[in-house]
Design brief:
mainly alpha; 4-stranded parallel β-sheet; 15 helices
Amino acid sequence: MRKKAPPDREISFIHIPKTAGTVLAGIIRRAYRPADSIPAHNLDELMKLDPASLNGYRCYTGHFGTALQDLLTKQVPTVTMLRDPFELYVSSVNHGLRNQIRCGLNARDIAAASEQRWRELGPYQTVDEVAGLLVAGDGLPLLNHPLAISQVSNGQVRCLGVHFEIDRLKQATERLGLAEELAARSGPVPDRDVYAEAVRNLESMVVVGLVEDMEASVRMVCRYLGVGPPAEVPVENVNPARKTAGSYRSSGTLTARQAAFVDQVTALDREFYEHAVNLHARQVRAASRRWWQVWRQA
């Protein structure tokens, strides 16, 4: 059986963490030859590549924020995926907790050090109770932890609106983390200039995808590439400790104070997400009209 030729078009997928991007990145990369895809998946790996080689690829997917577009000397059509900010914040905190536990941090030490914080929002009574939740992968006691607020809140605005000091990144000797770099460049809350840049980047994208409309998002990306969509969109990189298949907001696992806090620290992302929802809807309608016209002419 003859293998289908790779897409004629180039693509850059800005992968915002915890937005089902692993699924979409896999679909995109499988459409291209391995040699066409950038051999980097995160900011640290990107900055270690020879800058002269970057323009030679045709498929770019990774946790790069805006750094890639600042490094390239060509324009590459861009896509991204966004997620409801409430769901994204809780998911990201849980993900960060799992990483800390995997790195060897002691759950009881984390619980003890953050006791003042988790007593402000949650119904928790003892350090041991919270430590047990953390070991099980439940990060709700850490929703108002300073690191969560600085590195997770309004992450979609930060990822698409913050520009890096590329020369400094090139000279960095420590491992570069996207969340840490974004927080360092945008402060506790991104300002309106960062928000405006994020909106400009979003409005220039050929596909604005949504986790909440995953199938339509995947179809639009596949249509842009000229490849067939998968028969079923796979599910990857899901929290194994998650107790509900629905939304965190409707699950009943957050207290009213916890939910109100998440809404408060994701307010800018909420405004941005609503703009993305409108862009996505327009793109879906436009794609449907094009399909109908092709069908009528067939």
